[in-house]
Amino acid sequence: MTIPILILAAGASMRMKGRDKLLEDVHGRPLLRHVTRRAVATGCPVMVALPAGNQTRRKRLEGLDVTILEVTDADSGMAASLRAGLAALPDEARGLLVALADMPDVTTDDYLSLIKAFLNDLESDIHRAASADGIAGNPVLLPRWALNDPSVFTGDAGARHLLHQHAERVRLVRLPGNHATTDLDTPQDWDKWCKRT
Questions:
Q1: Distance between CA atoms of 149 and 127, rounded to whole angstroms?
Q2: Residue 59 burial (CB < 10 Å; 0-12/13-18/19+)?
Q3: I want to staple 10 with a disulfide (CB 3.0 to 4.6 A). Which of 34, 37, 71, 94 is the partner?
Q4: Burial (0-12, 13-18, 19+ Cβ within 10 Å), 191
Q5: What is the 3-state secondary structure (H, E, C) of 42-105?
Q6: How far apart are CA 6 and CA 90, in angstroms?
Q7: Cβ(39)–Cβ(47) under 8 Å?
Q8: Neighbours of 82 (CB within 10 A)
């Protein structure tokens, strides 16, 4: 069964000192396109949540087989993007894989590892990516039952409250290296990452 992937790309890059981190160059492509291409390569349906009216980010996705979700209240927090994703979720989907657009190291195989682990789980628990040494990170695959929790859809915490509330039902899926924990929020993060790659 296919699991849709929702890429959260409606944030304002507030900590980037005027730069849009999703337009930064990663291996010759804007970060947003780099991350989205890897999700599309899974063969799963991919939705990308963007701030309403942001044509610059939208243009970076031209030619990719994705559904653009325009988030009119993106400035209210991450929950607005999650609400948009839930509204677009097909009835037959067993869950939703929620990915962050500022994580350049997450690969197509990483997405597929999460999906495989979830589909093999008879309990339909939450599956969360972790680093190779077990530090919890992202993406997170939320089953249908978790998407009924109203706490997921308020504020900027996203699924954080849900993961804490149902900690006993969170299964960590270890990904290579620090794929699950490397996100690029500040110019300093970018500088460190560029020196490593």
A1: 16
A2: exposed
A3: 71
A4: exposed
A5: CCCCEEEEEECCCHHHHHCCCCCCCEEEEECCHHHCHHHHHHHHHHCCCCCCCEEEEEECCCCC
A6: 12
A7: no
A8: 23
- Is-contact 74 10, C-beta < 8 A? yes
Tokens of 143: 């089953």
Q: Report if pTM > 0.90.
A: yes
Please give the average pLDDT of every successive group of 10 residues along the chain, which has 197 residues. Answer: 90 67 90 97 97 93 96 83 89 93 96 96 93 96 85 62 87 96 83 78
Contact 67, 48 (CB under 8 A): yes
CA proximity to 95, closest of 191, 25, 3: 3
SS3 129: strand
CA 80 to chain centre: 14
How do residues 104-127 score in pLDDT, each as one tens digit? 999 999 999 999 999 999 889 999
Nearest partner of 111 among 164, 36, 182, judged by Cα? 36
Q: What does DSSP say about strands 29-30 and 95-100: parallel, antiparallel, or unpaired?
A: unpaired
173-185: buried (b, 16+ CB within 10 Å) or exposed (e) per residue? bebeeebbbbbbe
Report CA-CA distances (Å) from 169 to 125, 132, 144, 187.
5, 20, 13, 36
